[in-house]
Design goal:
heterodimer, A: mainly alpha, two-stranded antiparallel sheet, 2 strands, 3% strand, B: mainly alpha
Chain lengths: 606, 476
Amino acid sequence: MILTLPVIIPFVCAFFLLLVPKSRQIIAWIISLLAVLANLFVCLLIFRQDMSFCLPWAGFGMDFYFRVYQLSGFIILACACFTFLILFYSLAFARGKSYAKHFCAYTLFCLAFINGAVLADNLAMLLFFWEGLLIVLFGLIYIGNKEAFKTATKAFVIIGVSDLCMMAGIGLTVHLAGTWTISRISLPLNGLGILACALLVIGALAKAGCMPFHGWIPDAAKDAPLPSMALLPGALDKLLGIYLLFRICLDMFSLKAHSGLSIVLMAAGSLTIIFAVMMALIQKEYKRLLSYHVISQIGYMVLGIGTASPLGIIGGLFHMFNNAIYKSCLFLTAGSVEKQAGTTELSLLGGIGRNMPVTLACFLVAAFSISGVPPFNGFFSKELIYEAALERGWIFYLAAVLGSFFTAASFLKLGHAAFLGKRNEAYKDRDIKEAPWFMLLPMLALSLSCIFFGLRKDIALANFIYPAQEAAFPGILGMRVNILLTAVTVIVLAGAFLHHIFRVKVTASPLKAADDIHYAPLLSWVYARAEEGRFDLYRAGLWLIDKAAKVFLRVDRRIDWLYNILLPGFFNALSLRIRKAHSGYYVLYIAWSLIGGFLVLIFVLK
Amino acid sequence: MPSLLILLPLSFLIILNLPFRDILQRASFWVVAFFCLFQSIAVALHPFIFWSALPDPYGPFFSFRLSVDNLSLILLFSIGLVSFVSLVISRYTLLDNKQRFNFLNLLLIIVIGMNATVMVTDLFSLYVFLEVTSLSSFILISLKKDKLALEGAFKYIILSITATLAMLSAIALFLLISGDTSFVAIYGALGNPQHVFFSKLAIGLFICGLLVKSGIIPFHGWLPDAYSSSPNSVSVLLAGIVTKVSGVYVLMRMVVSVFGLNQALQDILMFLGCLSIVLGALAALGQTDFKRMLSYSSISQIGYIVLALGCGSSLAIAGAAFHILNHAIFKSLLFANATAVEEKTGNGSIEGLGGLAAKMPFTGITSLAAFLSTAGIPPFSGFWSKFIIVLALWQAGQYTYASIALLASVLTLAYFLILQRNVFFGKVASGLEGVREVRVGLIFPQVLLAVLTLGIGLFAPFFLSNFILAAGNILK
């Protein structure tokens, strides 16, 4: 019964919240904080336990079936922590904003649906909560600025389409396996199984934001409220998407190394890393830059799980955890900057590190982490993924290391342009203060855990990752650091640093540090197209639908003409003829009758 | 007991015309109304009170034998119902006392004629009662004595006479062949190979006469004029039942029980039926006069009945009988609507009207019910009869005719939509702001008929299994 609490508590509280009048924002905050704390408490209680809860529901095997085991316990605990921190942060960030109440309510709904989706051990339940999340996502983006409706629609369509794929995948899986219960499904990867698995993976990857399902994230970074970004694409979507990917690939289907699916996953991961980080490199806006890193980091996790080697999977899961920490921390620093400086345009910022030292410190820790600088936590998870990728092929390793280089370069640019250097002339006299403590505390907590899990990675691995992994790969423990790979990483990072210094010297502006890559021959052409949105599947889809609609409209008009003009015209003309024939002259009528009578007689007599 | 249905109106007729008839005039309406209702209700309840199975003490009074089967029962019910409606309408539309009294007498005569036509079992009596019916309808049409009415009656007489001539010669031929005019004797004689040519000629002539009386294209010339130029209560009677009895019913009875269906007859009937369906609907499409449009619609609907008759299976005959009943209901209803509209707007044109549904809610809604029933939209009763007809055609392998019958429903929809849009839908036309709903006396028959068509449609399975499908059993 306790298993249903993580769903019921936030859900009920969220409904209450919607009833609270807008003028009583403080009540909304109290309710939501209490709900999140209660949820955190329940999650702590059930963490590292293995139990299940089953109620009959819709019949046909679609039962209300919850199960918690090591991995799902860890995921919902992590979700509970992140939600708590981000809600705490938004206490100060969103105070007085019109969307505050709705943000709280949607956050709680989101938490309820995520907990449900993670705990569900029945595919029908999973789908139910998964689709619920789609609606909440729409809401969380929609409450942003004026453009947000368009972006929310975009997110809704992209995720909705991929959810349809997942629905089909679930149908196929249930058909193949003969059961809805996830923990009882174990299918080989052949024939229809590949299709089912691929469809499910599309759903999971789209939720995580992997290319090519990423299009809504950069737009949402601009339009959605910042806590929404920190919450969903920053932390929870990753946890959920990668968790499901793990369940699909390793629990329900047995992903083998060197299999087609493994290579497809690794390729998708590598391409996501490279393309997204290249896009991040040229961004000139704080949040948009971060949003591309959100996508890029997903690539590492998909690459890790795609290797199908124990090392890679552990790396992928660990990276998922680390990424959620530093990425939400980065978004929160962006929020601080936005709140205090009033803008996140890098060209207008500069030198605010002096005014906001704590924010700067948190930013630095998170940035080192994401770039994979030892001994921060990001370094270790990336190192695991490197090693597994190298095992599968140097090309994947190359992609991962290149990604690392560009990540470092883009964060050097971001940090330098935003926090160091000189202030933009126009904004020189603006008085910028440090963010309030309500916002600093969550940031501090997150950045400290970056350091903590970097220094004591064994705690994270031993408590969270290994127990979860034991089911899939029993007996794996112990962790070595590959000296050679570490050396390569350090060299690459140093290269990025030197490149940055050099470029800043040449261009005299940190913002233009990456321009040599931006305007390199061929690349500049690609970048220009990318910035126009030419590679956006959503746009292509809209274009295609628009054209198809025009064609269909033409066809429809023709058919309409047939029905509205041709046929009625024909029948009206016919009708007119017949009416004209009825002249009212009775001799004519008698003639008709007689002729008709003769014909009938002849026919009868023949 | 069936003889009561002839003797009762006959005696009423005599009593009404006794010397002190001024006193009786007031009661006359109620007497006739009582009889019509009695006929409908007694027929509808026949399975429960078995009146038709009782010994007939007055039978020997006649020189001819009466018999009642399931098909006759459906017709007798319709006769009672439509006569009643026509009677109610006449009370409010024929304002001249003398005219109304004449109408009552003629109504009684025409009811006698129709009841007898439906029940007789020999050809000559059939002819006599057909003529009784026709003659009283001539006079009924010209009741108002204006130019149009006289012209309509004249056309009817002229064309009827050609029909009568053909039928009389046919009867002479039958008498020649068989030596008797009873149905059984003729049926037996037709099988005699000696008289093939004459029997075929007689059948052909007789059917030609009946086609004229039914108003099938191309024998229909009299029908639109007669329907649209007669007084409203007479239009209801003519369109609702008279032509059905004197034309279609006799055709069914003759073809099924006496002549026997053969391939040539089937082909002719189905072809002419289909022609009537399509051309009648097309002609109705552009009409600007309410009653004239309904007349052409009648031609189209009669086409359905004849088409089903031509198909000849037991199910098709049942469908035809059902369609006669439904047609009696919805066509009377439509003519009642036309009466209501004419009462309030002053003329029968459908142009320049509009929005009357808001002003005359009962008329609007009941006309909608009638129109949906005619077009064959469920759950109205018209849907079931058309459905059975199309189903029977399909089962008999007549796919072309079945498709045409189905598609022609679209034409029906088209002209009735035009009618509805012009008269009832939309904004109230200028000059009609003061229009009110008609008086209760005119609302009553409309509502009665609308409830019947909806009720029969809703409980179609009950009616089908208890009354209608049995009508197909007349097929030998």
